[in-house]
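User: Sequence recovery, please. Input:
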């Protein structure tokens, strides 16, 4: 381009000089033709030579001027190419105060404003990306052709490496509900809602697919798995409570109606019926107490009166206070040893924990005739255990045994008066202490329930053999 400009400038200058020389030659020849004598001939020749000399001098000057302009235009073209390639830091060096310099200054100012605008746009893009990545919802933008335009970090975790920009959504997400909502937003340009249950194992998402003004669609996936689980737990809880209350109420109602309808019944029969009524009323009262206790330990306002306590003292207190429960059952409650290490515990809450665990073991320990309570010191905590030597628990039950109303043997548990809430209460109390709880068992060899409590700050006693 600059080569053409240089050629045009030089050619124009040459044409002007040639035109000037031709005009001067014509003028002088006219004057020579009209004037007799050699003086005018000499004057015309000198004029001709003067024009040729002027042309010889002007050509290098014109070439030098045109070359300077061409070089400056070369710099402008190179500058424009750098801007087009995205190098917004490019600047032109100002070399004078002419019109080209004014143009160079204007181009520099334009490049500077472009750089500022692009920097602001990039900052906003990064802020938007960071904001979308920090969302709990999964977000993915789709092009009008159905390709992934962008996805946030949550969506990438859900879909894995399958989803990436430029890849068809149908190859990245296989859930039919998601694809149907996206297709509706793209084709009908309307907001579509749905529910996806096969996008990730065990998780449920609410789908919101909305068309974008510039074309394409934006899909937002809200994880409602926890809400669904809580709702299912609530429904199951209500159903279980209703069932647990209905059973003794039905029994009480039946026996009371029998007594009312037969006023002349024998005293022995009446006493037997009243005994059954009392048993069921006691069961209902215990269920109510356990429900209140569970509601208390599950409440965010549940507070523990933590204080330093020796592990050995907690075990001894549990054996002493619970000895009366097992004295008439023929089962021996014995100590398996415990360290003198100090833990942080609420004594009343610990009495409830040991009481529920020992009572649970008592239901199955009659075959083994003994229950062992002990503790051992670990690195940063003390592990307590309550072990029976009964029939044991099958492995498929161990993962759910701390759920509310879950029973391994429903008939045996109801016969012994259990509510199905004792182990759930224990779990919440232990977790409120910052500990862990689990069960271990082998069929025919009994079961052991273990829980941990954190050590109290300060020096501790050395390891003491335990379970």
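Assistant: Recovered sequence (467 residues):
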């Amino acid at each position: 381009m600059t080569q053409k400009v240089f050629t045009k400038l030089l050619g124009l200058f040459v044409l002007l000089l040639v035109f000037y020389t031709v005009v001067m030659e014509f003028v002088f020849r006219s004057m020579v033709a009209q004037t007799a004598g050699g003086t005018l001939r000499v004057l015309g020749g000198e004029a001709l030579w003067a024009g040729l000399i002027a042309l010889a001098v002007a050509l290098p000057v014109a070439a030098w001027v045109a070359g300077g302009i061409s070089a400056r235009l070369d710099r402008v073209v190179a500058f424009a190419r750098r801007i087009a390639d995205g190098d917004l830091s490019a600047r032109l060096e100002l070399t004078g105060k002419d019109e080209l310099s004014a143009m160079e200054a204007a181009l520099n100012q334009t490049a500077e404003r472009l750089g500022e605008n692009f920097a602001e746009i990039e900052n906003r893009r990064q802020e938007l990306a960071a904001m979308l990545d920090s969302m709990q919802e999964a977000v993915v933008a789709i092009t009008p052709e159905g390709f992934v335009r962008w996805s946030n970090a949550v969506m990438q975790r859900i879909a894995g490496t399958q989803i990436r920009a430029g890849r068809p959504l149908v190859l990245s997400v296989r859930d039919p509900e998601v694809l149907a909502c996206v297709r509706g937003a793209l084709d009908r340009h309307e907001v579509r809602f749905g529910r996806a249950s096969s996008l990730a194992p065990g998780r449920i998402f609410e789908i919101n697919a909305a068309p974008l003004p510039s074309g394409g669609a934006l899909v937002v996936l809200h994880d409602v798995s926890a809400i669904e689980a809580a709702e299912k737990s609530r429904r199951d809880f209500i159903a279980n409570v209703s069932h647990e209350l209905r059973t003794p109420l039905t029994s009480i109602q039946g026996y009371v109606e029998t007594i009312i309808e037969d006023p002349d019944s024998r005293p022995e029969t009446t006493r037997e019926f009243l005994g059954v009524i009392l048993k069921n009323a006691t069961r209902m009262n215990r269920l109510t107490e356990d429900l209140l206790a569970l509601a208390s330990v599950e409440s965010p306002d549940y507070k523990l009166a933590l204080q330093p306590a020796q592990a050995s003292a907690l075990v001894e207190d549990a054996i002493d206070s619970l000895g009366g429960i097992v004295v008439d059952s023929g089962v021996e409650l014995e100590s398996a040893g415990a360290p003198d290490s100090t833990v942080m515990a609420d004594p009343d809450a610990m009495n409830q924990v040991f009481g529920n665990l020992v009572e649970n073991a008592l239901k199955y320990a009659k075959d083994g005739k003994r229950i062992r309570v002990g503790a051992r010191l670990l690195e940063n905590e003390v592990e307590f255990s309550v072990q029976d030597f009964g029939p044991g628990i099958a492995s498929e039950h161990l993962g759910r045994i701390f759920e509310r109303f879950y029973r391994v043997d429903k008939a045996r548990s109801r016969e012994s008066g259990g509510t199905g809430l004792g182990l759930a209460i224990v779990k919440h109390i232990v977790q409120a202490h910052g500990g862990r709880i689990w069960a271990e068992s082998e069929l025919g060899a009994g079961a052991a329930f273990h829980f941990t409590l954190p050590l109290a700050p300060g020096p501790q006693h050395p390891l003491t053999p335990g379970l």
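The radius of gyration is 48 Å.
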